[in-house]
Amino acid sequence: MQGGEDDVSYVNNSDRQALAITLSKPILISSLQTIKLFSTNSPIRITDLGCAAGSNTFTTVDTVVETLRRRYTAVYGGGSLPEIEAFFSDLPSNDFNLLFKLLTEKRRVDSPAKYFAGGVPGSFYDRLFPRGTIHVAVSLSALHWLSQYMQSDHDLENFLKCRKEEIVNGGVLFVLMGGRPSGSCSQFGDQGTRAKHPFTITMEQAWQDLLDEGLIDEETRDGFNIPAYMRSPEEVAAGIDRISGFKIEKMEYMKVVEHSDEKKEEWKKDPVSYGRARTNVVQAAIRPMVEAYLGPDLSDKLFKRYENRVSTNREFLHKTCFYGIVVFSAIRI
């Protein structure tokens, strides 16, 4: 993800992820209502895996903390609440400086702090914590990103094996990831989704523009792959069955509409602003990968072509664009 706080940063282009979190919040709260209540003498440990940086980073952890505090208060009374530790984990390239800057600002408002916080750099496809130390693990809009292109099953199994070691018996694993509906035979099997979403087609056209202008060759165009895979609920359930150690409490496929009708009407009057906003969202997600592949100059040109394409194609503003997510909660058994 693109760090910093400028127009193309993740922190300023994560509204879609925020909506997905809001839609899935009832599943998270329901899973926490059934979690085993652990001793109040030891800290409760929460981790956000693939935390990025921004308001979304804290929203779900706050939900977990508040839900657990209510449960413990109801059972033990207000004087026996356990201390809570929250570990924010992401790749070392994540903007941890921004994350803790925002956390410090948040704590000035929330004082006294509701939990102790720490950062854990590393890949969630590896072990990050000692065995049996995590009570609640959440991962939001991250698990569809692969460690390497076409490693979907391998990566899912590694993720689950690591969490199986780290999460205590009775603990909760909650995951929200990009996904596709049940019954679709492959990532691109749902042609309706592909046709309705502007990213796929328009980005392909932008790459072709660079090729047509002689700025890149076919090998360069064809050699770039985004290491992401949108799993179906069946694929996720099969992975959990293969690893064992978890009982699925709830799993759903949901559609997240990208823009409100009001926003679309606003952009119809100013398609240039739509093109710029759409491009900022795309850059926030994939600019670091593109820049590592093409370099900064060609990356600027690619995203400019993309912006021009989106700005001049009014068809997208007359479609209901959405993307799919798979959400599940599971109990460690």
Automatic annotation (TrEMBL):
Pfam families named in the record: Methyltransf_7
Gene3D superfamilies on file: 1.10.1200.220, Vaccinia Virus protein VP39 (3.40.50.150)
UniProt cross-references to InterPro entries, sorted A to Z: MeTrfase_7, SAM-dependent_MTases_sf
GO MF annotation terms: methyltransferase activity
PANTHER family reported for this sequence: S-ADENOSYL-L-METHIONINE:CARBOXYL METHYLTRANSFERASE FAMILY PROTEIN (PTHR31009)
Protein's name in the database: Uncharacterized protein
